[in-house]
Amino acid sequence: MDKLQKLINYQFKDITLLKQALTHRSVGKNNNERLEFLGDSVLGAVVSRELYRRFPEIAEGKLSRFKSYVVRGQTLSLIAADLELSNLLVLGSGELKSGGYNRKSIQADAVEAILGAIFLESDFDTVNTVILELFKEYIEAINPNDTLKDFKTQLQERLQKFGQTLPQYELIKTTGKDHNAKFTVSCLLKDQSIQVQQQAKNIKRAEQMCAEILLERLKK
């Protein structure tokens, strides 16, 4: 815990809050889902404000794509790896047996939960500083001249280019209630006989995650 707090440059007043942020729902009631919900919202607000400040001439649509690029699951999982969160996650027996500590989505959720925990016991300015430092290289990597098309658009354009059937997205299941809901979406590429599933806090994000995976597979 001490190393993690040094890496994020924040010392928790209530260490149990940090432990909760690292506790997966498979453990039971006192898990990180509510903190994750809070952290997701705070992260979005901080990144949105920073992009608004950095790019005064960029229109809303492009700013939204920039934001999606910065806060996407892949970025969160990379930050989780830098923070070595896999060694600190608290998982239920089922998740432990299935190697849940290596699951990128669980690590990404824990990053958001940590941010939520920081905000809960401090204030917006404090968590703003932490977030901008953690996401610094990803924000600074943005080129305002890039289109940064989202993954669904990239996938569709690639398939259209080769005259192939467009992807078919389907909501498979919804788990949890209200702010804790998780959506599992599948995406099928009929011509290639490839299908993937991803889970996220909203359907659009799950679809984007599916499209990202499929794009990588098609490039191989």
> Into which percentage range does the β-strand content fall?
5-15%
The count of domains is: 2
How many strands, which pairing sense, and closed or not: the largest β-sheet?
Answer: 3 strands, antiparallel
**Average pLDDT for all residues:** 92
Please report the number of helical segments.
11
CATH architecture type of the largest domain: Orthogonal Bundle
Intertermini distance:
39 Å
* CATH topology annotation of the largest domain: Ribonuclease iii, N-terminal Endonuclease Domain, Chain A
Q: Catalogue the unreliable spans.
A: none
Return the string of H and E elements. Answer: HHHHHHHHHHEEEH
**Coarse morphology:** globular
| Beta-strand segment tally | 3
